[in-house]
């Protein structure tokens, strides 16, 4: 069964540093998403991406966040200057079939 | 925007009993309602979904019902087993964005 893959599985970074989270969506999917889940809380939408541009974003997705599809397979989330409250599990997802989540990247900002 | 509420937040049942989790949504434009099971530290996994033109869907021990008029949908798990223990999230798709419930931690007691 096709999978959405994410790397790294765990990243620790110092506050103020930039991080890039990587995702490889399912190849024939057209919509890509980033979600985050702060420990013990619900999954929150960050951004959706279609046709090489952002189609929708939440209030969480402020100027320190950006997304890119640098080539035909990868989909990245960049956090420019990390804050402690950015510590969370970040899930990439792609659709339309069943809306498949990646295995997540646990980001820890220290 | 959409607002999804989920109840209960925790649920304990004896093995073999049924479990019911309920979600309400606010926006009648939402048209797709998936349920996800999330085991500790893992990605949300789609377990069942329902579209707005269907009232009920069943897959073995799992069923989902949708009441469009009342704007609520429910997950039913029959003959629960210890491996059903997990956090379950409902979601509603409005436009291009999923809105998640706050999760229900289900514990099945052997």
Strand content of chain A: over 45%
> With helices defined by DSSP (H or I, 4 residues minimum), what is the helix count of chain A?
0
Q: State the assembly state of the protein chains.
A: heterodimer
pLDDT under 50 segments of chain B (min length 5)?
none
The count of β-strands of chain B is 11
Major sheet details of chain B: 6 strands, mixed
Please give the number of β-strands of chain A.
Answer: 11
The assigned structural class of chain A equals mainly beta
Q: Topology as H/E string of chain B?
A: EEEEEEEEEEE
The helix-strand sequence of chain A is EEEEEEEEEEE
Helix content of chain B: under 10%
Question: Strand share of the residues of chain B?
Answer: over 45%
Distance between the termini of chain A: 36 Å
What report would you give on this structure?
- The complex is a heterodimer of chains A (110) and B (110).
- Chain A is mostly beta strands.
- Helices cover 0% and strands 51% of the residues of chain A.
- Chain A has strands at 5-7, 10-13, 19-24, 31-37, 44-50, 53-57, 65-68, 75-79, 88-95, 100-101, 105-109.
- In chain A, strands 2, 4, 5, 6, 9, 10 and 11 form a 7-stranded mixed β-sheet that branches. In chain A, strands 1-3-8-7 form a 4-stranded antiparallel β-sheet, with no helix packed on it.
- In chain A, strand 7 and strand 8 (75-79) form a beta hairpin.
- The model of chain A has no long low-confidence stretch (mean pLDDT 89).
- Chain B has no helices and 11 strands.
- Chain B has strands at 5-7, 10-14, 19-24, 32-38, 45-51, 56-59, 62-67, 72-77, 86-94, 97-100, 104-109.
- In chain B, strand 7 and strand 8 (72-77) form a beta hairpin.
- Chain B is globular and about 40 Å long.
- Chain B is mostly beta strands and 110 residues long.
- Classes of the chains: A mainly beta (110), B mainly beta (110).
- The A-B interface holds A 31, 33, 35, 41-45, 48, 50, 55-56, 58, 91, 98-104 and B 34, 36, 42-46, 49, 89, 91, 95-103.
């Amino acid at each position: 069964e096709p999978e959405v893959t994410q790397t790294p599985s765990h990243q620790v970074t110092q506050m103020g540093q930039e991080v890039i989270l990587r995702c490889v969506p399912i190849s024939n999917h057209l919509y890509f998403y980033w979600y985050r889940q702060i420990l013990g809380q619900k999954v929150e939408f960050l951004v959706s991406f279609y046709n090489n541009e952002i189609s929708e974003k939440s209030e969480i997705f402020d100027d320190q966040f950006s997304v890119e599809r640098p080539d035909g397979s990868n989909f990245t989330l960049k956090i420019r200057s990390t804050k402690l409250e950015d510590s969370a599990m970040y899930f990439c997802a792609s659709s339309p079939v069943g809306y498949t989540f990646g295995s997540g990247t646990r980001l820890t900002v220290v | 925007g959409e607002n999804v509420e989920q109840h209960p937040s925790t649920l304990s049942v004896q093995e073999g009993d049924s479990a019911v989790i309920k979600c309400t949504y606010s926006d009648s434009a939402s048209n797709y309602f998936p349920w996800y099971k999330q085991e500790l530290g893992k990605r949300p996994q789609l377990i069942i979904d329902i579209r707005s033109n269907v009232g009920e869907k069943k897959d073995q021990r799992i069923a989902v019902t949708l009441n469009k008029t009342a704007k609520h949908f429910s997950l039913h798990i029959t003959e629960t087993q210890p491996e059903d223990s997990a956090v379950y999230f409902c979601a509603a798709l409005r436009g291009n964005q999923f809105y998640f419930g706050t999760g229900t931690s289900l514990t099945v007691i052997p």
